Each structure stands twice: as C-alpha cells, then as structure tokens.
Amino acid sequence: MIFRQLFEPTSSTYTYLLACSETGLAVLIDPVAEMVERDVRVVDELGLRLAYTLETHVHADHITGAAGLRKATGCRTAGPAMDEIPCRDVGLREGEALQVGTIEIQPLFTPGHTDGHHSYLVDTGSHKMVFTGDGLLIDGCGRTDFQSGDPATLYRSIHDKLFTLPVDTLVYPGHDYAGRRVSTIGQEKRRNPRLAGKSEAEFVAIMAGLNLAYPQKIDVALPGNQRCGDGSAKAPSA
Ligand SMILES: [Fe+2]
Questions:
Q1: Do residues 94 and 80 make contact, with C-beta atoms less than 8 angstroms apart?
Q2: CB 29 within 8 A of CB 16
Q3: What pLDDT was estimated at residue 146?
Q4: Exposed end of the chain (fewer CB within 10 Å): N or C?
Q5: pLDDT at 184 over 50
Q6: Model pLDDT, residue 202
Q7: C-alpha 74, offset from chain centre
Q8: Could you tell me which residues are beta bridge partners of residue 121?
Q9: pLDDT at residue 232 in the model
C-alpha cells in the first residue's frame, strides 16, 4: 500500500492518502479545501488515480476539499451515510467495507464528537491502521460540547470499539496540535490523560470542565461542509 500523511497548518488537520500499489487507485481521508491543489499534485506525482475522498464526520473547524477534488479529478465523495449530506456520492455504514483496489476500508461507527462520526480501519496484512478522525486523538480526544457531541457516547465509542482493537494497531488522528503524527491503541490505553484508567463518569467530568472557546470557523465550516465544500476553495476568514 502507498501511504502519505499530509498536513494543513491553519486547522492542524491531517489528510491521509492511501493507495493500492497494484491498481494505482487512491483515497484521501479528510481533505481540506485550501489544500486541493497540493493533494492533486501529490496524487499526480505518485502516478495514482483518485477514486474517493472520505470524511470521518462533518467538520466544524475546516471545510472539506471533497467538492474541489471531485471537480479536479472526477473522484467520488464518500462519508458516513447517517450524515445525510446530499452532495456526497457514497454513504458508508459499519459492516460495509469501502474497496479501493486491494485496500479494504472498514468503517467503525464511533459517535460522540458528532453523532455520525466514523473511524476507518485498514489491515495492510502486516499491520492494522485506524484513522480516528476527531474521536480518539493522541493523548486527547475530540471535543464533545457542540454539534451533537456527547461525552458519554464518545467514551463508549473509544472503549468499546477502538480500545478493543489489537494494542499494536497504529492510530492516525484527524488533528494534532503539537506535531505528533502517530500513536498506537496500546499507547492511548496506557497513557491518554483523559482516558487511561478513567471511568465514564470521570471522563464526562473532564470533558465538562474543558471550557473550550467557540470554534472560530464553525459558522462557515458547517454550511460549507453541507455542500461538500463546493464554492469554498478560498480560506474562510476566521
Ligand atoms: Fe471535528
């Protein structure tokens, strides 16, 4: 499998390129509108054909590059079916894999950050990788205080679904604000300060005490993402 971890610095978003080395078919997980040109260039440089963009959830902190990439490459746009985004071409559900050449992407329903949030599990044959969006982050987790978020639901998603994966599964988050790129399920179980050894009630109390600022881009990002980012190639003012 061909793999690249790409970064957008304004929202500290990771976009993941996965491609089948036999067919050259590629998928971009959580692309960002401002980075469409870069993403097209990377796909071209590697001699790949973009088959899909794939969203973990409806983002509040950035606008998706899905529509821009569809326009530029003819790819199809995919994401959780339960988000009910009309401009998406493919709706995914847990239990129904997305096939990209020889790569099988397994959606895992991991609500809590949003009510439709999914993670994506890939088994390369030599190791497992899970793309956790804004559910599980390295030494942290996604916020649960807006956009249908719910801390008890997120706790159960992480404990029941992500923490039951093999401990050496590689964890690739949707964001990192301190330059960390990858972790493992074992590392997060052992040392994530919000989750390691914490009960559901303790986790809910931690999340309730965060007092986070209102997301700067939410008022442009949510309507923009309802349109798959169409007409949003320029950076919205923060
Ligand atoms: Fe998010």
A1: no
A2: yes
A3: 87
A4: C
A5: yes
A6: 98
A7: 21
A8: 106, 130
A9: 60
Catalytic residue status for 127: no
User: How many degrees, rounded to 5, is the angle at CA 140 between CA 112 and CA 166?
Assistant: 80
102: tokens are 């020889």
Q: What is the CA angle 90-117-54, rounded to 5?
A: 35
The pLDDT of residue 215 is 86
Q: How far apart are CA 132 and CA 162, in angstroms?
A: 9
Exactly one of 61, 83, 176, 230 is catalytic; name it. Answer: 61
Asked whether residue 234 carries a pLDDT value surpassing 50, the answer given is: no
Q: Can you spell out the DSSP letters for 172-209?
A: EESB-SSS---EEHHHHHHH-TTTTT--HHHHHHHHHT
Percent of the chain scoring above 90 in pLDDT: 93
CA of 134 to the centre of ligand 1 (A): 5
Find the 22 Cα to ligand 1 centroid distance in Å.
33
